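Input record (one chain):
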Amino acid sequence: MDSLSSGPRAGRNARRFRLVMIFAWAGLIFYLSTSGFGASFTRWLLYIVLDLLRVTVSAPTFEFLHLCLRKLAHVTEYAVFSLLIYAGFLETRDFEWRPRLALRSIVIAGLYSLTDEYHQSFVPGRTPSLVDCGIDTAGASLATTIVFAWDRWRQTMRRRKAAAAASAAPKANGVPGL
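The corresponding structure, as predicted from the sequence alone:
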């Protein structure tokens, strides 16, 4: 192995990279909260996508799809943000379940969501919403739930693999169960 890919220096560089990603994603969220990405933008985007797919919907259905798209964007951006925060503070390379870290990630993402909504109160064409903060926090919670499920699934697979290896190992003195 070369010295750039292992050891304490590589660990520090990886951690720095993860922290840079947290701040970059926070910057992206801030940028997406500007007037250029308001409801008129997502309405236009949805119209283009439906037109490309040759799908026609009624006006009420379009507005419902538009609302779903906007709220799904909130869930997604804060789920990713929470995962980046979780990874940024994780001491190992693997996404191991750490309940306190999960809570910290959710709280930080939720607090950032509040500042983002406050920011939107100064942006023409945007309005702050505590409902959106709740949706953002739900997205952050969903991401940590995925980490929990992933870790549990991985542990189960490891146990099954170990059990299979143990049952396939030669038995002592040729007597099963010894």
